[in-house]
Amino acid sequence: MKLYIENFGCQMNVLDSQLIAGRLGRDGYEVTARQDEADVILFNTCSVREHAEERALSHAGVLKHLKRRRPDVIVGIVGCMAQNKQEEIFERLPHVQLVVGPRKLGAIPRLLREIQASGGRRIAVEETDEEYIDGAEVPARRSNDFQAYVKAMEGCNMSCTFCIVPTTRGPETSRPPEAILEEVRRLVGQGCVEVTLLGQTIDSYGHGLKPAIDLGGLLRRVHEVPGLRRLRFITSHPSFVRESLIEAMRELPRVCKYVHMPSQSGSDAVLQAMRRGYTVARYLALVDRLRERVPGVEIASDWIVGFPGETAQDFDRSVALMERVRFQNSYVFKYSARPGTPAAAVREDVSEEEKRRRNQVLLDMQERISREKNQGRVGQRLEVLVEGPSKTNPMRQTGRTETNLIVNFDAGRDLRGRFVTVEITEATALALYGLIAPGT
Ligand code: SAH
Ligand code: F3S
Predict the structure, then answer these.
(1) Domain 147-375 belongs to what architecture?
(2) Which of 12, 44, 283, 285 is the most exposed place for a label (fewest CB within 10 A)?
(3) How far is it, in rounded angstroms, from Cα 195 to Cα 75?
(4) Which residue minimizes the CA distance to atom 13 of ligand 1?
(5) Does residue 306 have its Cβ closer than 6 Å to ligand 1?
(6) Phi, psi (deg, nearest 5) at residue 232
(7) Does the pLDDT of residue 129 top 70, yes or no?
(8) CA pair distance 314, 9, nearest whole angstrom
(9) Beta-carbon neighbour count of residue 254 at 10 Å?
(10) 289-327 confidence digits (pLDDT tens)
């Protein structure tokens, strides 16, 4: 049996797809990159913006032709859009037979067997964790053996007024540290050197666990796994970056000094309307504290432009915040109303054209800041974990630094999975270029 799985959305979805492939691997499924030879085609979907849903719907829609030619093929929609749209998916896409939400992925093998035996449609969107795939029990099918995503917590207890994620992923649930450690030990035993702990608000990790533990405590325990060289964590909510996390980042050499901590806006009025739970002043104080306590730390942000009620002055404040913090990188999004969220009930008053303009202003500004920051790195020697040859030039190797900077350098051989030191000679907004230091 062959499985084709296509991924839309965040790192958590990437990991979920790897877990699904791992779990179905146990039932004898092999992964294929070709839809036309697959027995099962799954789309692991995202609901964060309308565009992401439309893309997945149109990719899955095209398959009606394949399904006509090969009626035995099972097409399934899983992940956040499955949870969000539920039965509506069957109405829009009659050839889809399987709809499974992000907290029920463990039901996929059983439901596929049922469909294979008796046909028809199956849906699993209940909010329980009974059919959860745990990475400690089911090894994910990863794209390489030296880097791994590991789930630390999932779901979200926040109520940002624009966001659909608490509805699709459900309430926050943290995995016990023992399960995480067991998974990390096994991964490192198999040659993994870099682990990224994942969670929607990773820094609120530990909620409900006994004995009590927080992200700082979890990092301390995972950090001690012998053989692990880099430990990352994403995404942080500014409200939960606590002293114990800052201490852990400061003290633990293998914890990467990189914090993805979305600010979303630089206007207090907009932050309040978004119900983000902090002010610009508090965000800035946190940035200053991080930089003072964790030398070399880099900070990344997400931004939403065109949130309902965002005036030109509000937007100017986002511009000012970006300039003041000088983020390493930024993900900028045009506001997209998500039906059912509180913000969607408010009339949109920023035109599409104006959203596009604001989006471009922030992107251009971040590009300039990234270029300036990167140019300041010329002459430095940076440690790089090599990810493999670049797609466009096989002689060129590409990798990342501790703070997630992309570094390209020429090497006559494939150094995938190795740590090398690169002396930086050139820089653009997106990447650094350099020469591999002799002896590495
Ligand atoms: N903390 C979560 C955030 C998920 S959504 C996580 O990392 O898993 C990722 C980003 O998408 C958010 O930070 C926000 O900037 C953006 N986003 C969320 N809802 C949006 C919406 N309705 N319109 C536009 N952008 C949105
Ligand atoms: Fe969404 Fe806010 Fe949670 S952006 S994932 S509701 S922290």
Answers:
(1) Alpha-Beta Horseshoe (3.80)
(2) 285
(3) 32
(4) 302
(5) no
(6) -115, 165
(7) no
(8) 28
(9) 18
(10) 999 999 999 999 999 999 999 999 999 999 999 999 999
